[in-house]
Amino acid sequence: MNEIWNPEYETMSRDELRELQFKRLQMTLRWVYENVPFHRERWANLKLKPGDIRSLDDLHKVPFTVKADFKAAYPYGLFALPLEKVVRVHASSGMMSNPTVMGYSRGDLSTWSELCARVAVAGGARYHDVAQIAFEYGLTTGAFGMHAGLERVGVTVIPASTGNTIRQLQIMRDFETTVLVGTPSYVMHLTDVALESGYDFKDLKLRVGLLGSEPWTNQLRTRLEERTGMSACDIYGLSEVIGPGVSFECWNKDGLHINEDHLLVEVIDPETGEPVPEGKEGELVFTSLTKEAVPVIRYRSGDLAGVSYRPCVCGRTLARHSKVYARTDDMFVIRGVNVYPASIEAVLLDIEKAEPHYQVILYREGSLDQIEVQMEVAPSFFSDAVRKLQSFQQHVEERLRQELGIRPRVRLVEPKTIPRSSGVARRVVDNRGV
Ligand code: DLL
């Protein structure tokens, strides 16, 4: 399984890597200073020039960039290149307010496919594979990024896009798909539909899953691998930084390797903005080192993870971050207790008989916040005696209470009660404001 797409960079010594990062950082800082008034003006207010950054450790002097900066600059305000040099535009999924708009030069597209090729190979894809991409081909980055990376490796790519689940299964069987690319929740849904419609994963040729774009636990991974027979790797990224290709798991599945020769990562305390020690969880902050059209400088991802520089058994020297289970903004507070949706998933999937479909509903009763966890259970469950159902429900409530520190109400629902999505699953519905 262990093959490395670009050993020269993926296994570079840490000293060489830091040297390369600093050289590229200097170029990037000069590039944005000269070409993006937003950065130049902010630095001018701080009396800061690119030359004042004399080492990687000086980077903290540069202000952070946040999503609101992209929204305020909508659509092209953070571009460092004129549109005539930009060959592709993508945008984030949130269309309620201004989406964040990304541009790619020809060089950026080449960098992006290189990074996604590393993702594909680390997860186990090879030139002789057939990859079905079940991310949406549209404004968002998932499909186009992984498409280019897989093609670069020489994999045969099927741009299946999202939706039409039966057709996805048919393609998977008839086109002999070996690599499946999509969100973990959608792949889980695919396995449900397969069961109902007479597709047996044992008859399919699937062997590798490259899954991401949403948080998912190791418990969900185990379920997916058992059901599909494939090895599922986590792939992480965000549009502002480049899209997929930011980081990826190798066969060892112990943290996601960050493409550090193109991206500088920092981990900060989200409250204070100060760096946290190695391994400790904080907010991931990224600076692009080679992007031309829209470089990002100290971009606060909102994603929480810890970073480790320990060498990995796969041979890569690239730092690894822990799986991203939560964002700074998806934590909810119920009666003073901080709750992350991923900790609920971890508990539910540890419980035998629980289906991996759940939704958390927050609501208000009088002036008190309440939390209800709806979880699907197999239909056979409902033929059991009421007493048995109740005792199972109480068992789940108790397990959740031990993990979360508050006791949610658990409601067992029949299969398919919880809405399915072909993209990112909606795990939390907050009705408290209405
Ligand atoms: O989701 C890019 C992507 C596409 C990554 C396909 C991987 C595969 P955005 O739509 O901008 O970009 O959403 C980025 O999604 O800040 C995380 O909160 C979340 N996210 C992405 N991948 C993971 C993952 C793409 N593997 C936001 N685990 C990020 C947990 C993830 N969260």
Q: What does this 3D model show about the protein?
A:
This protein has helices at 7-10, 14-35, 37-45, 67-72, 106-123, 142-153, 165-174, 184-196, 218-228, 341-350, 386-404, and strands at 88-91, 101-104, 130-133, 156-158, 179-182, 208-212, 231-238, 243-248, 256-258, 263-268, 282-288, 299-305, 307-308, 320-321, 326-327, 332-334, 337-339, 354-365, 368-377, 409-413, 428-430. The strands form five sheets. A nine-stranded mixed beta sheet has the order 4-3-5-6-7-8-9-14-13, with helices on both faces. With 434 residues, it is α/β, with parallel strands linked by helices. The radius of gyration is 22 Å and the shape is globular. A hairpin with a 7-residue loop joins strand 8 and strand 9. The chain folds into two domains: 7-329, ANL, N-terminal domain (Rossmann fold); 340-430, GMP Synthetase, Chain A, domain 3, CATH 3.30.300. It has eleven helices and 21 strands. The structure holds 5'-O-[hydroxy(phenylacetyl)phosphoryl]adenosine. 5'-O-[hydroxy(phenylacetyl)phosphoryl]adenosine binds at residues 92-93, 135, 140-142, 212-215, 234-239, 243-244, 301-303, 324, 327.
